[in-house]
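hiii, so i know i said id send this last week but things got crazy w the move. better late than never?? heres the sequnce for the chain we talked about at the cafe, plus the structure i predicted for it. fair warning i was half asleep when i ran it
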Amino acid sequence: MTTTTTETPSHSSTARKILWNTISQIIGKAFIAVLGIVIVKMITNYLGAKGYGEYSVTFDFLTFFTIVADMGLYTIGVREMAKDSEKTEMIMGNILTIRTIASIIMIGVGCIAAFYIPSYQGTHIPIAICIAGTAMLFNILTSTISAVLQVNLKMQYNSFASVVGKVITVGYMVFIIYAINPGTTEGLYQMVWGGVAGNGAMLLVTYYYSSKLTKIRYRLDWVFWKDVIVKALPYGFALILNNAYFRIGAVLLSIIKTPTEAGIYGVPMDILEAVGIIPLYFMNSVLPVLTRSLERKDGSHQKIIQFAFDFLVMGSLPLIAGTVALAYPIIYLVSSPEFLTNYSIGFIGSDTVLQILIFALAFSFINSLFGFILVADNRQMKILTRNAFGALLTVLLDILLIPYFSIRAAASVNVITECYVAVASYFIAKKYIKFKIKLGNTFKTLICAVVMGLVVYFLKEPTYHYIQNKNIFVLIPLGVVVYGIMLLVTKTITPEMMAIARKPKPIPADAQKKMPEDDKFNF
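okay and structure toks below
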């Protein structure tokens, strides 16, 4: 008699799904980051610091309004669909309706408000914001629909859609700059139109793949609306406040100082935004599994939280070490010489700002874990107070310090705020959910990152003599190799982590029937 075998979702297989769902997104994001570098390089060279400042402020300003339209519905939607997959179509349809209506209203408010800000008068920013509104609407619709892919751990399709959209944006910009080459005013507007074209393509591709999993259509269920909005509003307000303390520095620089300084600050912010999406991708993959684990109340959430913490630390610490060592060539690569620090004339450039801001990014990696723990446990209201104080702290310090220390103040305040939020998040999560973070791997990861950073730093000068700032193309891969070797030598990567990446042996079907349900599906 032949024994059939099937592969059961065990601890390793569930973790593997999370890992590869995240990796697929990171790979896609890596392509997007490369294309993003091309975009920043083209725009900074084409429009200069002032023009790039107006371009950057356009999207930063409008983000404050679109985040209101988000209301935290994406994360809450993923959580609700994870709880009851049979209601996916109903949940998706209603959230799509709510976010579409809210987005149109808030983008309209943002466009009108831009014309009444005194420091924006006489600039191209208000018109650019009106154009960017369409791009932002497409982006919100895309993220809404992609919740279906997220809950099914199929985000590789969303990554593909993002790459397609970014390719179209780059192609549009290349055509405008090198074929048509309009003046700087029309050129700025055309750069924004490139974002509209790319985001429109991204929406179409995401819709195509999501519709294969469930029917995507607008729905109106007032009872559901009331329930989901009540659940989402606290988290939505928390996101607004989070956006405030993360982005307010750039906007206040454009108001208190000039668009040029906002442009200098905007280049490293764009870099960090591209990298900073990694923990969100990862935690959105973890969220459905963590939610189910907390509902079971069997203690399995402890392993999930530890796994997530170790992953986020392994991702953040080498970023700090590498960026501090290579900030100058990184900024040289993605922008133009006018963005680089020149101490002989007292000019602080984007490279110095990047060296400061990278520490804020590291704290934000850890923030994401504890914030998502609270969301998974339906305690998003607790995030609101934390972010409210963080936003207030940021605004007060920025207003006090930016007039005297300009972009260095905005960057340093961002680090202070992210540090506060990380510490506060940990203690809030510990108050409501029982878990323990083991730091053994953290210390070993720190050693690995420091060794990698020192190797890259001391090789920077010798390699510069041969290939100048293009040495970054040698040093970054070398840093990755050194870091990987150090992780293996110090045994920071455990056998369990290695097992997660490998395909498990199939379990006979008759043996599966004898397994307890928790052994089949426990993380």
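btw The chain is about 80% helix and 0% strand. thought thatd interest u
miss u guys!!
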